[in-house]
């Protein structure tokens, strides 16, 4: 059985809407490997806490080390299946709202911050680590 070359599939997939691309992810491994970079190349935001979590799982040791002084518990979990962040083409660096949403949703408050808002330097340090990763 003959199949289309990856290049032909890629050229076809780039014209599909995201909803259709999500369906293509589930067809087989080959299609998944072609579709994931297309989907992630369309992302351009830091406003989703789920995306922030994936980004934080992708940080290397040096980028993670910058966040450690703030005693923020980074997400645990397996490494992502793909190097998602390498597929992103454009980013709007409005990081604060997504990072704060992730911090709040994770109940990630260090004991000394229970009654306070997150200090701006902690939020900026996380944003800085993410930006460094993307660059």
From TrEMBL:
PROSITE patterns: FBOX (PS50181). It holds the Pfam family F-box-like. Residues 1-43 form the F-box domain. InterPro entries: F-box-like_dom_sf, F-box_dom, LRR_dom_sf. CDD domains: F-box_SF (cd09917). This is F-box domain-containing protein.
């Amino acid at each position: 059985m003959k199949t289309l070359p990856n290049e032909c599939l890629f050229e076809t997939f780039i014209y599909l809407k995201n909803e259709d691309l999500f369906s293509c992810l589930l067809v087989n491994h080959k299609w998944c490997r072609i579709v994931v970079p297309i989907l992630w190349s369309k992302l351009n935001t830091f406003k989703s806490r789920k995306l922030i979590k994936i980004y934080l799982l992708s940080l290397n040791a040096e980028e993670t080390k910058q966040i450690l002084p703030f005693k923020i518990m980074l997400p645990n979990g397996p490494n992502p299946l793909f190097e998602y962040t390498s597929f992103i083409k454009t980013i709007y660096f409005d990081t604060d709202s997504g990072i704060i949403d992730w911090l709040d949703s994770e109940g990630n408050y260090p004991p000394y911050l229970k009654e306070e808002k997150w200090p701006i330097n902690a939020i900026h340090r996380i944003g800085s680590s993410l930006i460094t990763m993307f660059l």
